């Protein structure tokens, strides 16, 4: 007999300092004592957002004022298959307090101090440590000048840098990647290398950004902390999830200066493509830092910028 399929709305309730709320399951529920994200079953006739609002009022006594769709994970337990529709909750009324016998704890994604966690939640906790703004380098004409822009961006809080220098000579690119990685690590930020897995491993970078052609060819996930993929359609997003990528860059969302007149997704198509995905999705193409909230309202984890990250 096939186990039942249960749809759940779950909340990553995030404070301004970046900490998020976990709750222990009460003694009268399966997996008692395990820690999980607050939320609960979506009832018949409810949307995921409606269920989220209801569950957080019932469980924690808070009323959501800002929640954006995020990641959807499916997990098979012995007794049921659970589809977890996660939202990022960043504003609410009231103070969370246990109303159903659970214990609450604010946690940092890089230093979890409670255990055990429900198995389905580990990828979500990793995703919470992924910054929401990615800067993509544009240094080939002036690498030394770019490093000063990098230092300024890091000082202003940029935590995720993708090195994409397709025209830089190999030896120069390796030296540049090492230098960028040293500077990002000094500011507790991450460096991602575009397409070159060997270069990422050799320079101590944190991850690799796979091209769509690499995505089609690889059979196993590269052994790096972060693995992302460049995607443009539903099939590529599905392949990225199948390979075990942590995130995808979905583009182009809006018109860009580098490709004037080229077809774009627009926000409606971006939303359609990003729904029900098990990995974090960045919006890319024609965006500025001011577009972050709009992107998240349409299901994005964050945004990736070229020019806008360094101005």
TrEMBL record:
InterPro entries for this protein: Aldolase_TIM (IPR013785), MutT-like (IPR047127), Nudix_hydrolase (IPR020476), NUDIX_hydrolase-like_dom_sf (IPR015797), NUDIX_hydrolase_CS (IPR020084), NUDIX_hydrolase_dom (IPR000086), ThiamineP_synth_sf (IPR036206), ThiamineP_synth_TenI (IPR022998)
Highest taxon above the source species: Bacteria
Give the record's GO biological process terms: DNA repair; DNA replication; thiamine biosynthetic process
Matches recorded under PROSITE patterns: NUDIX, NUDIX_BOX
Which PANTHER family does this UniProt record tie to the protein?
Answer: 8-OXO-DGTP DIPHOSPHATASE (PTHR47707), NUDIX HYDROLASE FAMILY PROTEIN (PTHR47707:SF1)
What NCBIfam families does the annotation carry?
Answer: PRK08999.1 (NF006530)
Family designation: Belongs to the Nudix hydrolase family.
This one is known as: 8-oxo-dGTP diphosphatase
The organism encoding this protein is Sulfuriferula nivalis
Q: Lineage of the source organism?
A: Bacteria, Pseudomonadati, Pseudomonadota, Betaproteobacteria, Nitrosomonadales
